[in-house]
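re: that chain from earlier
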Amino acid sequence: MPEPVKKTVSAFAKKPKTQEAEEGSSVLFEAETEKPDAKVKWQCNSKDIATGAKYVMTAAGNKHSLSIKAITKEDANVYAVIAGGSKVKFDLKVVSKPGPVQAPADAPGKSDVEPEKAPADPGPAPPSDPAPPTDPAPPAAAPTGEQPVVPAQDAPPAEDAQPPDTRQDLTGLFTEKPTSGNVTVGENITFVAKVCAESLLKKPTIKWFKGKWMDLASKSGKHLQLKETYDRNTKVYTFEMQIIAAKANFTGAYRCEVASRDKFDSCNFDLAVHEACATEGFDIRTAFRRTGADGKEDSGELDFSTLLKKRDSFLKSSNRAVQVNAEPDSDVWNILCSAPSSEYEKIAFENGITDLRGMLKRLKKMKKKEEKKSAAFTKKLDPAYQVKKGHKIKLAIEVANPDVEVKWLKNGVDLLPTGSKYIFESVGNMRYLTINHCSLADDAAYSCVVGEEKCTTELFVQEPPVTIVKNLEDQMVMNGERVELMCEVSEEGANVRWEKDGVELTRDESFKYRFKKDGCKHVLIINEAMKEDCGHYKVKTNGGESMAEILVQEKDLEVYQSIADLTVKAKDQAVFKCEVSDEKVRGTWYKNGVEVKPDARVNITHIGRNHKLTIDDVKPEDEGDYTFVPDGHAFNLSAKLNFLDVKIDFVPRQDPPKIHLDCMGRTSDSTIVVVAGNKLRLDVPITGDPAPTVIWTKGGKASSVKADGEETEGPESSWTLKHGEVVTEGDSRVHVETTKGHCIFTIEGAERQDEGLYSVVVRNPAGEDTADINVKVVDVPDPPQTPRVLSVGEDSCVVQWDPPLFDGGQPIIGYVLERKKKKSYRWMRLNFDPYTDTTFEAKRMIEGMEYEMRVYAVNGIGMSRHSPASQPFVPVAPTSEPIGLCVDDISDTTISLKWRPPERIGSVELKGYGVEYCKEGTDEWIPAIQGLTDRTSLMIRDLTTGDKLQFRVRAFNMAGPSAASTLAQPVTIREIMQRPRIMIPRNLRQTFVKTVGETVNLMIKFQGKPRPKVIWSKDGEPLSPTFASVRNSEVDTILFIRKTERTHSGKYDLQVQIENVEDKASITLQVVDLPGAPEALKITDVWGFNVALEWKPPKDNGNCEISGYTIQKADKKTMEWFTVYEQYRRTNCVASDLIMGNEYVFRAFAINQVGLSLEPCNTTDSAYIQKTAMEYKPPSYKDHDFSQAPKFTHPLVNRSIIAGYSTTLSCSVRGSPKPKVTWFKNKMDISNEAKYRMLCRQGVLTLEIRKPCTFDGGVYMCRAVNDSGEDIVECKLEVRSQVPKEENKKED
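^ sequence. v structure.
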């Protein structure tokens, strides 16, 4: 009889019933819900039904119906209707259409059940008047021995007693849920669950439970196997729970839960295990047996336990020949409750109960549950409910009196209806409390009170995990800048944890890091970022984490004002001045490459951002190129100082022009290099009288005859100067000017097209001169070619690129690389010093994140523009090698291998496994199959018999193959007649315990053909023959130890092997001995007739648990020992009822499963029980508190005095203890001033001011302080100046 379950509140007012219909007809099932807006779902064999040609579902208010058209035999199934937490099951029985009735003799199949004949005339009926035909029973309803009896048509449907589902907003991860099933004892059954992983970021995890809490993952073994497969095409995970050789106690409710990060789903299903049917030839007498060992028929006691196990199936088969209408079974549990315990076995035998032990346990629980039935409540609250934060929950009770008033309490306080938070409902006998928008404050104990009766429950509010909505972003900042890392979480006020490189960040005294909360936003602020702040920063919540990287780069120095060329006359002052962006940057001045040192004429100053070089009394030797180089920065500022010498030269009037250049431009040394964008300034010294005309030409010589005798090709440009004025000018960027003795050619912002040969011609009436100057313009290089990612690792990648097409006229120094996440906009620099090679390994990346790379080229001039971004790539490492590679089966031409997935797979999924083999003595690995396999097992066919082969398996993912997992030794391709198998006796499956000195003789049988190889080992090490003796035969092995010692304890492993096929078993041997004596037994306290003892456990427990201690006492006079405690488990005790005036000593023994310790532990001192005496205790009185806070009884009085005459200020104060008095003038302490004298006599305070002047006037204050408080009094003192005597006389 099933156990009674709690009656739940049904959502149905009218339930559909089981119906019977003929083939080809239609049937209509109707249901009516309590609420009109309830959602109803129809199912067939636990699968949802959709409206179509076969099924028609209608809903009108609270009435719902299901119509099934054109019924066939396949429609005879179990149907169900679900509304809320209620589920009602019902059956549809399909019968064939009635046909012509044949004579009973011509019936093709005769039923085993014969109806009882009526007591009418037994004579045969005349043939002319045949008996009227009777409708035979439908085949589906005929109760046979092999078919269950179908319930009557009007039988009420069975409603699943499922509690309301308090789990809200399930994400529906299941694409196929496991369904309930039935199985016969000894047979197998498999439950299947499928999950679609297309929208999941992480592989789902699944758990199987029996009941509420029993996790079946730890029960895997002989009767339970859990499997998992993945289909890469459909991206569906299939999870299987297979129950092998089911037993009767497997019956019950099961649950399957699947989770993936913040998503969760679960479903419930049932398993029913039925007893196997007995054979037809069952003889009840064979079920009885005797328990005697001699095998005689009349020896031993009668044991009919075998009969009890087959009673049910025997009755089913034996009832075939009896009448169908049997009397209803009586309630066996009522009979057991009222019967004496001596009759239990007889009652169980009569009613077919096979599990006597389970019957007694259940009967014991039933007696405990028998309690007084509540008069006020028909249904009480459950012990506990659970709801997610923000959701609502409905508590329901059922009262006996529909008119009674109920009162709801929360933590013992009355609940009042407040808005929409708490809603009270009363429907008939039902009373409901609805709590909307549950928060953590609603996590409390709730009670419902009816009169003097009360029922209580606990509500647990589950707070959802806090997830990160907006992730952190990588940042690259300059040194000294402010950094803000911001993330956004799913809930306001949530706590987060910040980490840098795995170390938690906290607020320190230097206020380096500041943490800010703004609703759902959390910000980490670094005020001034330094180089040591580079690293990976991570923010964690209880539901996720996010990581970003910060790179700190040195700030580039900007030039606000550069130095300019100067032309200075003799004795004048020359000042070079520049302004840069950083006030802290210092620099060095150079003249013609030599550092300038300050002296009497040269002054160097640095004020803020301005740097200045001043030269007084300029001399001709001061002329040259001056350069300012900032410290720590790779650039400089240059200008030229021209000395203007004012003097009169007496030269001939007709002096032919002359160009004074060191080199005339016909060698490489004459090439002038200028950086693109900078100023090109050609200063050519010339002489000639009268002043010559200067002509500048680009693209060819100015003279009519070329150097090589041929005309130059290409465009030419010319610029002419006459008497210092520009006659012709070809470009607005070009400036030509002349001074006495110099001709200057300037191009502002030189470009690449300005590169070439420049010629200068000077003419006057006395002649002409020509010079050529070669100008080379250098620039930053072109961007490199698009980078290519050659390979990726777990947190790194190798990238390669081609050099730029144009190097800018200068050799390439190196390259600078940057990377960024695919979905981010921030590029992070990977190197600050130029990298010379064109292949770079980038590290410190996040596995599974998509990245892009780009490259800059650097030459002596600067950095190019960035290259195009590379193709996106994902850093991922190869998996670890597959584990557990072994031979599953082998024949003459095939071999089956199996293995387990790698321990570390990484963030990307596996592509599959590659299996290879090679012959012994060769290094050539041959693929066993074309391509890869998704399974963790493989059968390799078409092998040569007798070959000795070695096999290996590698796992493949996006990064390539993993390390190989190889068999321990080569395998000979030869069929094994019988696989090795070890048969461990039942008593050796648990720890085998022996006492020191006993003999161990273990015989373990095994099987296998050809004869297997037997290997014994202990704790992973081979078993030594001197340690234990081993004898092997073809069918068994014996482990023999003549005299056990403590060192024989441990785990013994037995391995039976044929080629690479093996079987293993383990035996745990525990050798125990008597324990040692307890330690440090001492007397901790003696009072009255009691002594407190304390001791420590023994160091040697005898290799087993200490079960207790024996404590004994002895009078010191007689030294006879008496036991105080026996099997005492604690390490401290109190010996009581000791005799007054005696002196006692104590000892303790340790006890384990072997026995008492050989030696006791004695106390070093004794305990004397003193005689009690009367002591006089004088009465105690509470001292009076005389303390009193200071109080001024006479205040200070405002006074006006004349300067020069001493005066006093007086007041009086009281207080206990005596207060400390301090005097103040204008709130300044004057206790240490010599001009004032403070007196205190009997509480009268006096301040004496000696010969005050007008400056002594002001507000004087006196403060009295003690432990009870303080008081203040103040006054104003006015000091008037004296009137001279002469003025008094004049007035008189």
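The first helix runs from residue 305 to 318.
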